[in-house]
Structures are given as C-alpha cells and as structure tokens.
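ARCHIVE CARD
Drawer: 12
Card no.: 0347
Subject: one protein chain, sequence and derived structure
Cross-reference: see card 0346
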Amino acid sequence: MSEEQIPDQLTDDAVMPVLPLRDVVVYPHMVIPLFVGREKSIKALDVAMSSNKQILLVAQKNAEVDEPDTEQVHTIGTVSTILQLLKLPDGTIKVLVEGVDRARVVHYLEEEDFLRARVSLLESDTSAEDERELEVMARSVTNLFEQYVKLNKKIPPEVLTSLAGIDDPTHLADTIAAHMSLKLDEKQYVLEIGDVRKRLEHLVKLIEGELDVLQIEKRLRGRVKQQMEKSQREYYLNEQMKAIQKELGELEEAPNEVDELADKIEKVGMSKEAKKKATTELNKLKMMSPMSAEATVVRNYIDWLVGVPWKKKSKVRKDLAAAERILEEDHYGLHKVKERIIEYLAVQQRVRKPKGPILCLVGPPGVGKTSIGKSIARATCRKFTRMSLGGVHDEAEIRGHRRTYIGSLPGKIVQNLSKVGVRNPLFLLDEIDKMAMDFRGDPASAMLEVLDPEQNPACND
C-alpha cells in the first residue's frame, strides 16, 4: 500500500481508492446498490471500509474490459460514501453507496492490488445574479421532466414527488439526469459539466429530444392498438356469425372452404388487380350464408379465378431441326405449309417475345389443318387445346356470361386454359368460318378482340 494515508474527512486534493464501474454512472446525492466481483474492486472496498468509507466511483470507457488500467477509465467521477456492504455466498459483494461530490483524478498512485488516486473536488460557483436565472431554468427542466415521466412508463411517478422537495438546482439536475434513460456516454458528459447553468441547458435539450422520440412511439403504439382492436372486433363478429349459422344448421364445411380459397388466392400467383378483386369477393363470401344463391355465384367466380393458370407454363422447345422432323413424320407433302411453319418458328426463336403469335390455316375439310396444329404443339412441347367455333352464335361463348345469371360461366377461351392447366398452350380455333350471327350478338366481332395483336393483351372475360 501507499505510504499516504486516507483522511478521515473528505477534503480537496485527497487520496482515496478508486472503483471502476461498468455501464453505470453515479451522480452526487444518488443512492444505488452495486454488485462487485473483481478482486481489485473488492480490495478497494475493503480499504475504504477500514478508513472513512469514502471511495471514488468512475465509469469505464469500455465495459467489456475485465482489468481496466488508468487509461481505460474516465478522469471525472463521483466521490461516494459506502452506506452498507454485504458479502454474498458466491463471493461477490453487494454494496450500497451514496454519491457526495464530483471529483477529478489528479493522478493515480502506484498500487498493485487496486486503483488509488489523488482527487480534486469540482465546485460549481454560482453568483447571486445567476440564482434567479437558475431558478427559472430549474422550473423549466422540472416541467419538461414531468411530461417525460408521463410518457415513459419505466420511471415511477413517485420520482416527481421527491423532485418537489429539492430546491438546490445542482441537486435537481443530478437527480433528473440519474432517472433518465440515456446512453453511458451521455450520462458521463452530464457528470463532467461543472457549470450548473450549462448542465440544466443540456438537460433541456436531452429531455426535448427524448420527448420527441416518446411522442413518436406513443403514436405508433396507438396506431398498432387501433389495428389490433379492429382485427379482434372483426374476428369476434365472424366467430359470432359462425356460431349463429351453426345454430341455424347452415354451417357445414364453409369455414374450411373459405380458408382453402384464401390460401389458393395467395399461392396461385395472380396479377395485382385480379388478387384485389378475388380478396374482395372472398370477404363478401365470408359474410354470406353458404346456402344462399348469391354465395354460390361468388364461390363459382372465385373458383374460376383460382383455377386459371396464372403463372404455370410449359417449357417451349426451340429446336428447328427436331420440329421439321416431327412435321415430316406426321404429314406427307404439304411442303409450303411446313416451310411456312418452320419460318414462323425461326422468327419466334429470334424474337424473344413476338407480338401476336397467330397463324391462319386455310383449306377444305380433311386436308389436315387440325392435325398440323397438333404437330406444331408436339414439335414445340406445348400443350394442345382445341376450340370448335362451328355453330357458335352467342358472343357470351367467347367473352363469358354476366355473373348475375345462375350457372354463369367464363368464355370458352378461359375454360380451355383452365382445362389445359398452362398459360402458353397451342390454342386451335377450329372452323372459325362456321360462326353464325343472330339477335343475341355477333360472335365474329367478339373474336376480333381475341385475334387482334393490339387488343388481345387487354382482353377481358
């Protein structure tokens, strides 16, 4: 130990043991329990207890360092009095300390067992002219801190009662700083501000900043709470409706069916507009009685929506030699037709996304127009689907029926797409010249929208 003795009373330029602290800054007039387990820290406590129970508490710059040297602790700390010391069974010590005064480390003394330093007390001089200004600032800080406590649920409201009995601005500033949720560097900076007026000004800035953050958090919590209340209300009402329908004997497999449809809508890969429409219709279906006629119409509509292959497609083969071989295998002759088809496939291979990929096959019955279509599908590895237009005299067969009718169906094109299961089949419109026209409309005019490359990307069923 050093030859210098620790004085019985706290004086300026005194020598005392130093206790480095992790993740905590102790202010004057602050009473706090500490758990001490490091050997050097325990030795420093023993030395302080054997003399005048005074010890300097300083914060470590890096809390992860187990054995901090003099360069790894802050130079300004708090001279504190040990009020109570209790040794725990696991070897650690629980000590209750009370901060007394700010102090600066003048220099450290050579010690092997623990840190010991010569310290100088930091006094804050306040002139008589400043007292009135300090009183106003203290009142302002107290008002802001009251708002902070109301928004911050971690601070007990009893703190405000204890603040009401504090008249000294220095004591008030330290008490408020001790109760605020600040980072360690901010707490240390407040401790190092010797001038009371500057300390109060800095606290005003800190509290205002924290108030802004807390106000934003409060708004976010309120928004989330409203959304949760709305969801809970909807869930409660839906459960009530299910219970009522069950009592009436109307509810059988409907809940499972609705969940299944919702799952299909998510997984089928619809476009944004189609998904929005399907979700709206599903929400309507939830509110309807399963046995009503309108529910059947809505359910069929959703079934058709999820049954269409939105993203599933065949992998197209682009081997011209294989395509020519397959065409030769399936048909004898027809050289000009085969040559034109191979040219068309070659253009498709060069142009990644051709516009209006439509071919027109013309000829008398029996020459092989339909079988040529099947050969093209086999040559390109596309699925083949055929739609016969002979005798079609209603444009609803092409565009689909209105949903107001019971048993309404989409057009034949969407039906065939749903049946074939891919979005890029080879679609053969057979006997297109046999379409008829009557008072219900002209299906040939509806076919214009299907076949025109400028219109068919936006064709609606």
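Annotation on reverse: Residues 227 and 233 are 10 Å apart (CA to CA). The two ends are 95 Å apart (CA to CA).
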